[in-house]
Amino acid sequence: MIFCYDMFLMLFGVVFGSFYNVVGIRVPKGESIVTPPSHCTSCGRRLAAWELIPVLSWLLLRGKCRTCKAPVSFVYPLMEFLTGLFFVLVYLRIGLAWELLAGLIGVSVFVILSVSDIYYQRIPNVILFPSIVLLTVVRVFIHPLGLINYLLGAVIGFGVMLAIAVISKGGMGYGDVKLFFFVGMYTGIAGTILTLFLASLIGSAIGLTMRGMGKLQPRQPFPFGPSIGLAAIFIYLYGSYWWMLYFHIL
Ligand SMILES: [Zn+2]
Q1: DSSP code of 45?
Q2: From CA 17, how far away is CA 135, in angstroms rounded?
Q3: Which of 165, 189, 202, 224 sits at 20 to 30 Å (Cα–Cα) from 234?
Q4: CB 194 within 8 A of CB 242
Q5: Mean pLDDT over the full length of the chain
Q6: Beta-carbon count within 10 A of 249 CB
Q7: Using CA atoms, how far apart are residues 172 and 162, in angstroms rounded to an integer?
Q8: How far apart are CA 180 and CA 153, in angstroms?
Q9: Which residues 6+ apart lie within 8 Å of 36 measured at CB?
Q10: What is the 8-class DSSP label of residue 46?
């Protein structure tokens, strides 16, 4: 039975991931998420139902438009797959408890904002602000670590990132600063501090890899949001374990 729940949540997550791609790309431009229907951004042809199956369609079409052969970004299927994967992992970690709601909201927001950050190199307030309000309201009712823990995490995360942004004079985007308020509300104090370190590690690794592949010029900025999201979700899932391990070693 547990296996069935997993498969269901994976499919559920992958379909949601498909929708999150649309939200992350259209909402920052002020476009409707309903119309126009999904189309090839290169030739404008409306996509058939079988071309809209998350992950599978992209694989079947080998990442190209069927008619004009324009490449379709691998970001689409990647985000669909990751949403499904994280939905399942959050469920396996939390189980059927109210915190599952907060867990899935976190994954959803990080996926949507990562899409926006990858496409537009910014984390749009139009998505971030409602997300912060939503999670804060949820945290008033659901707070396994205590409400104060999350509020302090949000203030500390925002404060540390603001200091980094001011000191580095633009080396850190203010969207990333505001995103850490959300991270704090998601993971609490310890989780936020761990996320700060892990996000820097992931960001550096991605930056160095892209530079190595010649896809990034020295000092050229690249989106940090996906690294923050990945780190926050990872810490949300497994962070408390690391934290305890650390203190037991001491
Ligand atoms: Zn096309």
Answers
A1: P
A2: 19
A3: 165
A4: yes
A5: 92
A6: 6
A7: 9
A8: 9
A9: 46
A10: B
Calculate how far, in angstroms, residue 224's C-alpha sits from the geometric centre of ligand 1.
Answer: 30
Distance 105 CA to ligand 1 centre (A): 33
pLDDT in tens, 186-214: 999 999 999 999 999 999 999 899 888 88
Residue pLDDT, tens place only, 49-64: 999 999 999 999 999 9
Residues surrounding ion ligand 1 at CB below 5 Å:
40, 42-43, 65, 68, 70
Residues 6+ apart with CB under 8 A from 99: 142, 144
Distance 52 CA to ligand 1 centre (A): 14
Is residue 157 within 8 Å of residue 183, measured between CB atoms?
A: yes
In angstroms, what CA-CA distances link 65 with 40, 56, 61, 62?
A: 7, 14, 7, 9
Spatial distance between the Cα atoms of 240 and 190, rounded to a whole number of angstroms? 8
Taking the C-alpha atoms of residue 76 and residue 79, their distance in angstroms, rounded to an integer, is 5
